[in-house]
Every structure is written in structure tokens, then in C-alpha cells.
Request: fold
Amino acid sequence: MSRRHAAEVIPEPSNPLGVDGIEFVEYATAQPQAFGAVLQQMGFAAVARHRSREVVLYRQGGMNVIVNSHGAPPGPPVLAAIALRVRDAAFAYRRSVDLGAWELEPHAAAMELNIPGVHGVGDSLIYFVDRYRDFSIYDVDFVPLAGVAPKPPALAGLHWFGVVQTILPERTRDWLDFYGTLVGFAALPHGRYFGVLPNGTLLESPCHSFYLQLIEPPSAADAAGWEEGLVRVGLGARDVPAAVRALAERGIVFVDRGSVQPSDKGALTQQYLGSVTFELVVSHL
Amino acid sequence: MNIDQFGMDTITLAGPLEAKLRAIRDAGFTQVMLNAGDVVGHPAGDEAPVRAVRESGLAVTGFQVLRDFEGLSGHLHAYKVDVAKAMLEMCRALGSHVLLACSSTSAHATGDRDALIRDLRKLALLAVPFGIRVAYEALSWGRHVSLLGQARDIVRDADRSNLGLCIDSYHVLAHGAGAGAVDGIDPTKIFLVQLSDFLWQETRSREDRIETARHYRVFPGEGVHSEEVGALVRKLDEMGYRGDYSFEVFNDDYKQLPLPMVAARARHSVKWIAGLVSRRSLPARRISRTAAR
Reply:
């Protein structure tokens, strides 16, 4: 075997950060109780609160949702961050910044974890988390709520399926470059969709375990007032009708008119608190 | 072609930003190319120039200029990244969707192609969340990239959606190249075209090119290379370029003349170019029918 030549070009792995799914999504809201009630209807349970800030952790199955009210602006809740599970958070952060991501200023208080992150679309953030196996970030920064099961099971097998992002006209390639370069996302062939909202471009995570959907305004008329940002999460279910029934029993209302009515492929909830929707997508992930 | 495709550049005019915007608008232009110097140190603070641009009703062609970004390493690179981020933030605040970045003149910059590509990709990525496109321009005295063809190849190989080219007619003509310099360029990768002429036939040295570029440019139609400028615009038009043109005219005389007078000269230049391009691009049969009358 010959020794490797110094100038040998080795292609980068397709999953350079060792992405392994979504650790949590974070909503910012000045109405934590009302929003918490919506999450509970969606099958999540509050399991812990942050040591120093007005932040509550909700969970069901493998999904963690952080509801952050610390200095949250008034108005409807917004999807403020996605935390990616990665092999080495410090490496992921350094590599992202080296490639041109805008770094997030550290804001941990004493004895808290500093979760490294970079700026994403609009005002949203992308965090990198590498403690998600034996030991979790919640063990340090959160206090478990008394008398609550720490790991509530998922309703109807719900799991993360993806995140939907709106983008301005003719910006698909820009964002493909962004997510492709930083995280290793790759576009699915055009026309391949899941669920009941087959729009835009689907990007698959390098770990093949979740998707990002980029949506330009469907027409020039829709472009007015269209902003870039994270707009909703998609939850996967093996049996969408069963999940819809289970959630409807808990009071969740689904859009039942036009092309987005619940089907075997998926379903979309009504808007809660003026902005928040959840999408169900048939999934064997 | 009409005046809506052309912008005046604030660097051509003397005086405060508000007076420049007024003169440009009053001359009939609908867009303006802004310079960082117009907005930093504005006596009324950071918000005032943003407000002035918005209230002028002029669209922003682009924002200039990021210099000497690519090819640096270590602390010099980190320093330039900070500068680039500040420029991008100003660019966004002013409602500009194009940041002009000139090829490096720094003696500290490497010419290593992979390094140049890596740095330009980084600049493009920094600009993505802001919706800003980076227009890379070959300065005719650039240290490693001084020809349009070099910039074209680097932009092509960097292959980033929001990284494209700025073509400045001065830098093309100063090297003695003509309209053929744009051959082989994908028109969708041209993010901005800057036009100017100058008053002598040749620039004999690097120093001469710099001196002429910074002090002795004139509007197209006023210099001795106007035919070439016209040919360049015609060629870009034929290639399918439908983006913006801006007058990049650095001229010491114009900076001590009344603003309306200089803006009127710019307006005259638009008419000259538009006439040249539309006349020559008429279909042949239409010309012969007119001639037969």
C-alpha cells in the first residue's frame, strides 16, 4: 500500500457533521401557557423547566420541544430554532462558521451549557447538540417537573418528519447551497413529495431521517407579504388516519376542505394562536 | 432599453447623500448605486441614510465596495470577514440586493485558485440569509485576478447561486479588450454591469490604469472608447442580459460641478446608449422597409 500523497484530494463525507436527527425544536412565545396547552393537545407533555430562564421542555417519544418565553416578543408563537444532533458540536460550529455561517453569540449563564449555534433563515437559529445518548443537555440546564413521567410515549407513534421553511421568489438555489454546504442536505428529485402539501423543494438530511421543505410563494400575487422563515414542523406517523383520530379526540382540529383534507398521506391542523400549525405526514422513518 | 435599466452612481456626485439622491431622481433615473461612504458617518446617524434612500423612491442597484477579501489567511482573513459582515449588514439595511466585491489587490493575498474559490464561496454563504447576491469584479489592477475571463472562471467553478459577476467596462477596455471579453459568460451569472469611458486611448501601466480609473472616467459617449462601450452593451443585450447598468464614473471635475449638470450628462449618456443599441438591434427586414420608403 502506498503512502497517501499530501496533495491527494479526498472527497468530504456526505454527512460531514455526522448529523443524526433533530434533538429539539424551539418556539419563542410570550404566551407560554396557551401555547403549552396546544402542545399538550398535540400529545406533548411538559417534563422540565430551565434553571435560569422562563423556558419549558415538552416531550413525546423521541421529540423534544422547547418553549422559550425568555424575553419573547409579543405576538404569535414563532418557530425559533432547530437543534441538530451531530457527532461533535464544537466541530460542527467551527466548520459552519469557517464556511460562512453567522455565529450565535454565547449566552449561557454560570454552570449552564453553552449550546453552539449559527443563524439560519430570518431570525431563526440552528443549534448543534452532541450530548443526546447517555447524557443529555437537559440533564444540566433543566430541572425535571415533579410527579411527571420524564419520557412520555409518543401518541400514535408520532416522530419528527421535517421542518417547512418559506423563502422568497427565486431563492431555492441559494438555500440549497446554504443547507447543502453547511449540513449536507441534498434535494430530492423534483416532484417527489410526501404529505398533503406537495409544494416547493424537499431536502433530505444527510442521515436520511428528516426533511426540510423550501417553499417559494406559489404566485406573484402571493409574494406580497411573503417572508422568509421557519413556518411549521412536520410530524411523521405510520398510520395518519389513526393519528388524526387520536389528536381529534384531544381537541385538535384539522383543515378538512380543499386539497389539504386529511388522507392516508397526511393532514394539516388549523392555525393555533394565530400562526402555529402542525402537519402530519405518512412516514416509516 | 430605457432609463429604468440604468442607475447613477453616488460616487460621481459631490455633496451629501440627500442632494445626490435628489439630483439623480430629478434627472429621471429610477435607481441608484450606493457607496459605503455615503452612509457611514452620516451626520444625522445610522438611520438617516436608510430613510433618505427609502424616501427618495429610488431602487438600489447595488452597494459598494468590498475590497481585498479573497486569498488572505489567518488574522487577515478573520479581519476581512468582519469587514464583509459589516458591509453585508449595511447592504441589507439600505435595501440593496447586490454587494460589489472587487478582486484583491493585496500583496498578502495568495493567488491559489482553491483558496480564492473557498473564500468567495464563504462570502456568498454569508450573504445567503440576507438575500444578497455577491457581484465579483475583476479590477484591472487586481493582484491575481485582473481579467474578466479569470473572474468568470472562478465564479463558474465556485458554483454558488448568489455569486456572480460585475462587469465594469472600464476594466475591460483598460486592458485593450473589446466586447469579445464577455464571450462565454453565462448571462444569468452577470449580476451588474458598470459603464464608463475615459479620455485617452491607452493606459500604459498599472499605475496609469489606477489613476485613470479613479479620476478621469467619463460617461459613455463622452470619451474615446464609446464605440467599444456601445458594442459591449449591445453584445450583453444580444446574449440575453436584462439586468441593471450603472454608471461607474469617477471624475474629479464632476465632483466640483453642480449636481443637476452632472446628472443631466448621465441622462444624456443613457439616451446615447439606448439609441445605439436599439438602432443596431433592429431586425434587418424592418430596416430595409424603412429605407425603401
Observations:
- The CA atoms of residues 11 and 250 of chain B lie 6 Å apart.
- The beta strands of chain B are 6-9, 31-35, 59-66, 98-102, 133-137, 163-168, 190-195, 197-198, 217-218, 245-247.
